[in-house]
Design a protein that fits this description.
about 270 residues, mainly alpha
Length: about 270
């Protein structure tokens, strides 16, 4: 993977991380369309690049995120992230094994799109319009909903937003809490993928993520620039998504998933 390919994948990550269309699926599809070999560095890059997108939330919502008076937010996020940390650790190898199965991911993309078509009808008349009104119990429930995204193609954003709406949150409040929850969730995933996980266990040269990054100047540049690009693009995408979600709901994203998912199923089934 060269720098140009890394930038393209980073743009896709930034655009899709906080949209209900699955950033993992889109990065995988992009890498496949670019003809990139599915090596361990590419897999690690696709996971760790989310660090840049994480920082965009902190910057975009810094007033809320660093509001010391709202200390409850930190407790809610702390409890809500526990299910994903536990289940993610237990099923990490199985999740990784699915990342290369584009047919399965495309199928999940379509099925998730069908769910989004009906999401607005299922959760009408919200009672909570700000996360401050939400209990820790509801936050934990949203955390369990987020775990649905462990299946590549589901979308962490879609799962946690719909989870929030199921708990009575408005679309806007559910989306914002989903953004906040992404910070501890994806930070933990990034740290794990870089410093804890051993990549390529079945190969002759297994390595930690940071060892792969530091193995060459090119890898260092790809990692740094990739995260910078993901940060900038995600910062723009967040605000745009909130506007579209408030105005049109989930239907546009549902149809998008279905159309793209079917097109990719045809492509990967007949041409790959």
């Amino acid at each position: 993977m060269d720098l140009i390919n890394a930038i393209l994948i980073a743009i896709v990550e930034g655009l899709t991380e906080y949209l209900p269309i699955s950033s993992t699926a889109h990065m995988g599809f992009t890498a496949s369309l670019l003809g990139l070999p599915e090596d361990e560095f590419l897999k690690m890059f696709q996971v760790s690049i989310q660090f840049g997108a994480i920082l965009s939330v902190v910057v975009a919502y810094w007033k809320k995120f660093f509001d010391i008076k709202n200390i409850q937010l930190y407790f809610k996020l702390g409890f809500a992230v526990i299910p994903a940390l536990g289940l993610g650790f237990l099923f990490d190898d199985k999740i990784e094994s699915i990342l290369g199965n584009q047919i399965a991911i495309s199928t999940v993309l379509v099925l998730g799109g069908v769910v989004l078509l009906f999401a607005d009808k299922w959760f009408k008349n919200p009672t909570i319009h700000d996360e401050k009104e939400m209990s820790i119990k509801k936050a934990v429930t949203i955390g369990f909903w987020q775990c649905l995204a462990m299946m590549p193609g589901t979308s962490r954003s879609a799962a946690s937003i719909i989870g929030g709406m199921s708990q009575g949150l408005s679309r806007k409040a559910a989306a914002e809490f989903s953004f906040f929850l992404a910070v501890p969730t994806m930070l933990a995933v990034t740290v794990y993928s870089i410093f804890v996980k051993t990549w390529g266990k079945e190969t002759a040269n297994p390595m930690k993520g940071y060892e792969m990054i530091m193995s060459s100047q090119d890898h260092i540049m790809i990692f740094v620039i990739g995260n910078i690009v993901a940060f900038i693009v995600a910062l723009i995408a967040i605000k745009g998504f909130i506007g579209v979600l408030n105005k049109y709901g989930f239907k546009p994203w549902g149809w998008y998933r279905i159309i793209v998912g079917i097109a990719l199923l045809v492509y990967f089934y007949y041409f790959k």
